[in-house]
Amino acid sequence: MSESRVDVPLPVRLRFGHAAVQHLADSIGVDLLHIKGAAVDPALRPSGYAGTDVDVMVRPDHFARLDAALRANGWILYTTFASGSPFGHAQTYLHDAWGYIDVHRFFPGIRVAPGPAFERLWNDRHRIEIAGIGCNVPDVPAQALVLILNAARAGSAARYDLAAVWRDAPDERRVGITSLVDDLDAHVAFAAAVGELEQYRGARDYRLWKVVSSGGSRTEEWWARVRAAPTLSQSLLVIARAPLVNVDHLAARLGRRPTRREVVAEFFGRPARAIGEAWQGMQRRGARR
Fold first, then answer.
1. Are 89 and 109 in contact (CB under 8 A)?
2. Which domain of life is it from (predicted)?
3. How far is Cα 92 from Cα 80, in angstroms, rounded to an integer?
């Protein structure tokens, strides 16, 4: 007997992905907030764009429990906190039926500690139904702030209509957003999204948001990450990790897990690329004078 296969449209698969992870979280007593994509109020995404993966924010104290349950139920770890982004905010898992899920332990741009930040968003949550399962989502101003902070990172601004989310938003929603910016200490990232980053040149994370919002070399990004670290020990940890090969990114580039020889070649190729990037940066700065 020949097998038949039906391709499920991405928006449908994503909704079932939200439902699947929520069902799993409910079964183990884990608090989740669904963010972005299908979880967003339609007023904040007039284009109907629903993303390419499932995004959830987990109560930090519950992360280990959720991680173990995901791995035990068919999700494979795809990228780690350390390899996923300059902020180390999320791990990505892949399921052969539900696709990718990003589990956030905090959201980039929010400088309040992850536990209190989650609690602030959790307190104003409401429940919506996604694929027949009740899912907790932040209130609309918090959803809008998440989209704005997400748009501050290079390349994501095109995915959401910032005019609808912020510039043309009703006054009541704008007041709610700015209140959350204060409560969550999200001023620098918010400014990066709305074109006011230069007001925060003295902030420790100014350079990092400058790089991720406007572009820059990997070397510039690493130095920005060192400066953005809130403590000396964390800065030293960033410096120690800088020479290491991001095996997850290398695997994504190759389309398979790299061999040991390829990891070694990447390790020794990085200094040469860093010098090249520095030289190109000097040329660009010289051309602007």
1. no
2. Bacteria
3. 7
For residue 280, being part of any structural domain is answered with: no
What is the tally of structural domains in the chain?
A: 1
Structure tokens at 14: 């994503």
Backbone angles phi, psi at 216, to 5 degrees: 170, 170
| Low pLDDT (below 50) residues in the chain | 1-2, 157-159, 245, 263-264, 267, 275, 278-279, 282-283, 285
What is residue 253's predicted lDDT score, i.e. its pLDDT? 60
In a domain, 286, yes or no: no
151 touches 37 (CB < 8 A): no
Q: What is residue 154's predicted lDDT score, i.e. its pLDDT?
A: 60
Residues 6+ apart with CB under 8 A from 83: 246, 247, 248, 249
Q: Are the CB atoms for 191 and 174 separated by under 8 Å?
A: no
170 occurs within a structural domain? yes
As beta bridge partners, residue 34 has: 56
Q: How far is CA 277 from CA 213, 220, 221, 271, in A?
A: 18, 9, 11, 10
Cα-flanking dihedrals φ and ψ of residue 54, to 5°?
A: -95, 135
Q: Look up the domain containing 238 and give its range.
A: 10-245
Per-residue pLDDT of 73-120, as tens digits, reads 999 998 887 766 678 889 999 999 999 999 999 999 999 999 999 999
Smallest CA-to-CA distance from 73 within 54, 92, 94 is with 94
DSSP state of 163: I
- Is the model's pTM score more than 0.85? no
Q: Which amino acid is at 143?
A: Q
Residues 6+ apart with CB under 8 A from 269: none
Q: Is residue 285, in this structure, part of any structural domain at all?
A: no
| Total residues found in the chain within this entry | 289
- C-alpha gyration radius of the chain: 20
Token readout for 273 is 């690329």
Strands 76-79 and 133-137: unpaired
Report the pLDDT value the prediction gives residue 236, as an integer from 0 to 100: 65
